[in-house]
Amino acid sequence: MNDLMPPAVRPANPRFSPGPTTKHPGWSLDSLQDAAFGRSHRSKVGKAKLVEVIERSRGLLGLPDDYRLGILPASDTGAFEAALWSLLGPRGVDVLAWDAFGRQWGVDVTQQLGVTDSRVIRAEFGHLPDLSQVDFSRDVVFTWSGTTSGVAVPDGDWIPEDRRGLTICDATSAAFGMELPWDKLDAATYSWQKVMGGEAQHGMLALSPRAVERLESHVPSWPMPKIFRLASGGKLNEGVFRGENINTPSLLCVEDALQSLKWAQSIGGLSALIGRTRANFQAVARWVEKTAWVDFLCVDAAYRSPTACCLKFADPWAVGLSADGQRALASSMLAALAEKGAAYDMEAYREAPPGLRLWGGATVETADLEAVFPWLDWAYAQAKAEFSAEAGET
């Protein structure tokens, strides 16, 4: 049944994936011509480009002068695992888990690393845990913005300045798109493939002086894979933070990251990136407010992530379907949108409640979001009509 009239105007860029995200406006393959193809990352030119990524990133993010920033393998996951494996052990650990990745960090801490003095403070998708439960005499592991739940901490006010433990933050859906209080974060990670629209497989790790002190005074009790070794012989591996990578990086991806950083600087830096992200979220919020069949997965408006806009079905008819039925409904919608070239890659995360997910980071144009909303309404109406016809509903 395809007799519902689709909208006349498609988004100029129908890419709304939450990662890898769409490229920044004006991006082209021609911008990568200066990549150090066929050169060693240890060559003068290769290392210079790695250092440039680090220094441009430091400047854009506004990192304190005494923080280290380095490039690590395996995207945000690799950088965050390196932080967990290298830093944890001397104190008890509190893990905050309200999305799929936070839950995975809880598994890593309690089962893979086997930290016996550990607590996982959970909340269901769409909710934030009770932050007052956190004990900052312990190390605290948390996600700033839940990519799979659309739930983010509102600020850093809940983190005390006089904490005794370290704060270890997965900031991959927040960096460059949200204000981050670096003085409250001892170790923070992100990847190039989120707000900056870069390529996958490379992660970034920022360390405070307190985190460096931990690395130089603590030897983990578990075996350390080579790609996680941030210290040796009681000294920080400074090379990681000077463009001397633990493993071989892709210099093509490095060039792409440089181009995105240069673009960000050309439009006004961090404030412009955050402004674009906020404008995108506000557009999504306006549409959700006036649209009866959809709602934010995050229940409390104060905790909604402006980058990962996770949505659930609100129409009583759809809510009455089973979880598998709702997933089938979403799949039908997304297939129709992709067939029309109107929107790609908006699936909810596989472990999250069924629904949709729109990325609102800075590389997305607000006009494209506003153009896709009528298409989402069309796709829902069409899918509902088809499901109802198959069920013999009138």
In short:
By secondary structure, the protein is α/β, with parallel strands linked by helices. It has helices spanning 44-61, 75-87, 100-112, 209-217, 251-266, 270-290, 316-319, 323-339, 366-390; strands at residues 68-73, 93-97, 118-122, 139-143, 167-170, 187-191, 202-207, 231-232, 235-236, 294-296, 308-313, 356-359. It has two domains: 35-265, Type I PLP-dependent aspartate aminotransferase-like (Major domain) (Aspartate Aminotransferase, domain 2, 3-Layer(aba) Sandwich); 269-390, Aspartate Aminotransferase, domain 1 (Alpha-Beta Complex).
CATH superfamily of the largest domain: Type I PLP-dependent aspartate aminotransferase-like (Major domain)
Biggest sheet record:
7 strands, mixed
End-to-end separation in angstroms reads 14 Å
Number of domains: 2
Low-confidence stretches: none
User: What would the CATH topology of the largest domain be?
Assistant: Aspartate Aminotransferase, domain 2
Helix content: 25-40%
The CATH class of the largest domain turns out to be Alpha Beta
Average pLDDT reading: 97
Q: In what range is the share of β-strand residues?
A: 5-15%
Strand order of the largest sheet: 1-7-6-5-4-2-3
Radius of gyration: 22 Å
| Oligomer kind | single chain
Class by SSE composition: alpha/beta
Tell me the number of helical segments per DSSP (H or I, 4 or more residues long): 9
Total strand segments = 12
User: What overall geometry do the principal axes of the alpha carbons give?
Assistant: globular
